[in-house]
Amino acid sequence: MQNKRLVEKDAPMRKDDLIVITGAGGFIGGNLAQYFAKKGFTRIRAVDRKPLYDWYLRVPGTETMCLDVSEEANCRRVCEGAAEVYNLAADMGGMGFIERFRVECLRSILINTHMVEAAYRAGVRRYFFSSSACAYNIELQQDPAVRALKESDAYPAMPERGYGWEKLVSEIFCQEYWAERGLKTFIARFHNVYGPHGTWDGGREKAPAAICRKVIDAIDRKDLRIKIWGDGTQTRSFMYIDDCVKGIDRITHTDDLIATPINLGSTELVSINDLVSKVEKIAGVKLQREYQLDAPRGVAGRNSDNTFIKQVLGWEPDTSLSKGLASTYKWIGQQYGARKQGRRVVE
Ligand code: NAD
Predict the structure, then answer these.
(1) Is 235:301 a contact under the CB 8 Å cutoff?
(2) Ligand 1 atom with least separation from CA of 163
(3) In a structure prediction context, what are the per-residue pLDDT tens digits for the chain, which is 347 residues long?
(4) What are phi and psi of 64, to 5 degrees?
């Protein structure tokens, strides 16, 4: 591979080395803690500002900390003794959230700024940052029949207002901590992650979870209509959570990827209309579609170009959308049923 760097070898991770995960009360962080626990790691510190009862997943045997990591002193405490840090904390949500709350999204810059510094000071060996496809130039995403985005398409910079700028600037922090200070940083640009144990209601949920919930709700209320944001022609690719956590692990342990942003996403491009059809098929219904043309819809089209990840890792996310949606639909159905029976669920 070109530009291969000579990197000082660090000791391989021992099963009792400390792994820190921020945002672990959320969707991807929670699933990542579970993934590392299943791999046999015995010291995982899971951190989130949410109270414990609001966490999607609580992984037995992990140390939990309820702390706000936009505060510097908390970041120092969180990183103490860590061998690896995975920073997944961010104030974020689906299009409805990131188009409306740009200031909240931008303020997540404090999280990475303090976390990467604290990780560096604590002598952490590897630091992972969760970036996003929203960091890409929006001018390349104006057409539903979009050309897939490759890593170099982030520049010249014109990312999503608010959220996308925060991701891009945080990426630069990570790159400079490597260039100037030698902290091994790793940056993945996630493309729409979905699956069980994520937000499915309340305004921060993303399209796959929202559509599953709407279909379940329509069936439950015996009102076979569904409201769709936009005209349904906007296209996206969606990555299943199991591929996401596997990809995070592989990227963070590949020295050729130090300080090098890389796409982590599926290449299975679908329109929102296709997504609804897939969920309808799983549920065994056909709903009448009502398009809300004034609702947030985001860019017209976005897909992941996986040339680079295939070249470096010899792997790419490959769970089919139909398979991933089936388990997501089942989990949301269980949550919906539990809530209806008055049992407390996290949303
Ligand atoms: P999530 O909202 O489920 O989880 C994020 C967690 O971070 C939440 O539990 C939240 O309470 C926590 N958090 C926010 N601010 C905090 C703070 N100051 N201190 C401590 N905890 C804080 O989101 P997710 O889907 O799990 O996303 C994880 C990461 O991946 C985020 O950085 C997000 O921007 C990125 N990402 C996600 C997607 C996706 O499709 N889910 C796509 C691109 C990028």
Answers:
(1) yes
(2) 34
(3) 444 445 567 888 999 999 999 999 999 999 999 999 999 999 999 999 999 999 999 999 999 999 999 999 999 999 999 999 999 999 987 777 878 899 999 999 999 999 999 999 999 999 999 999 999 998 888 888 888 999 999 999 999 899 999 999 999 999 999 999 999 999 999 999 999 998 999 888 889 999 999 999 999 999 999 999 999 999 999 999 999 999 999 999 999 999 999 999 999 999 999 999 999 999 999 999 999 998 877 788 899 999 999 999 999 999 999 999 999 999 999 999 999 998 877 65
(4) -115, 140
Q: Is the pTM of this model over 0.90?
A: yes
Q: Do the strands 269-271 and 235-237 form a parallel or antiparallel pair, or are they unpaired?
A: antiparallel
Cross-strand pairs, 240: 194
Can you read off the two tokens belonging to residue 234?
Answer: 């906007």
Q: Which residue has the tokens 């985005």?
A: 149
CA 134 / ligand 1 centre spacing (Å): 14
Calculate helix-pair angle for 321-340, 207-221, nearest 10 degrees. 50
User: Does the beta carbon of 304 sit less than 6 angstroms from any atom of ligand 1?
Assistant: no
Could you tell me the sign of the dihedral formed by the alpha carbons of 234, 318, 56, 212, in that order? positive
Is the bond preceding 156 in cis, omega lying within 30 degrees of 0?
Answer: yes
State the distance from the centre of ligand 1 to the C-alpha of 7, rounded, in angstroms.
Answer: 30
26 CA from centroid of ligand 1 (Å): 6
Looking at residue 308, its amino acid is F
Domains of the chain, with CATH numbers?
A: 19-193+240-264 (3.40.50.720), 207-236+269-305+319-338 (3.90.25.10)
**Closest among 275, 285, 276 to 320, alpha carbons compared:** 275
Give the containing element (helix H, strand E) for 185: strand 184-190
Instruction: Ligand 1 pocket test: pick from 34, 48, 112 the residue with the most ligand atoms within 8 Å of its Cβ.
Output: 48
Location of structure tokens 């997540």: 108
